[in-house]
DNA-3-methyladenine glycosylase I
Amino acid sequence: MDKTLMSQDGHTRCAWCAVAPGELEPYHDREWGFPVTDDQRLFEKISLEGFQAGLSWRTILAKREHFRAAFAGFDFYEVAAFDERDVERLLGDAGIVRHRGKIEAVINNARRAVEMVEREGSLAAYFWGFEPPEHEVGVPQSLTTSPTSIALSKDLKKRGWKFVGPTTVFAFMQAMGLINDHAEGCFVRGRVEEARRAFSRPR
């Protein structure tokens, strides 16, 4: 199956953008796959990937600004202080996905993120320590998990994180640039490759 499609603007993009071009193309062109070191953005993304479980990314993306407002901009130090009153507040917020287990997981993971920064120096240093070898992924968009996503998921769970299964973690790795999974022929693939070459890996 062809993993690219020509868009109305004449650019060839990953075919998944065609579901909702107006919403997905800007995200695809400017964010997806570009390497990220900002801890808050990394925490936001792994939280939203957890919320996506069983849903579409389009659904989550449409609600992203609501999620940011509800979860203090995904400042994990602030979210770590959330209590049961915040859980109830979030369960009443129609702008987000109202799932108690996922909401409680984000709060739990914020506390684990604070611990991780204390131990590892930053979330970025930890996550980029799991950047897989290039040969692991192979043909773009042919996998939903990988040996590295399985290993990362296992390690996060050992550290007490929740809603971080191998598929969720693999989607996080795709989005945050730990791999370049743009389809061959997608006009953004080369841009991501350049960004990854110029990127200084955190230590």
About this structure: The longest strand covers residues 4-6. The chain has a mean pLDDT of 96.
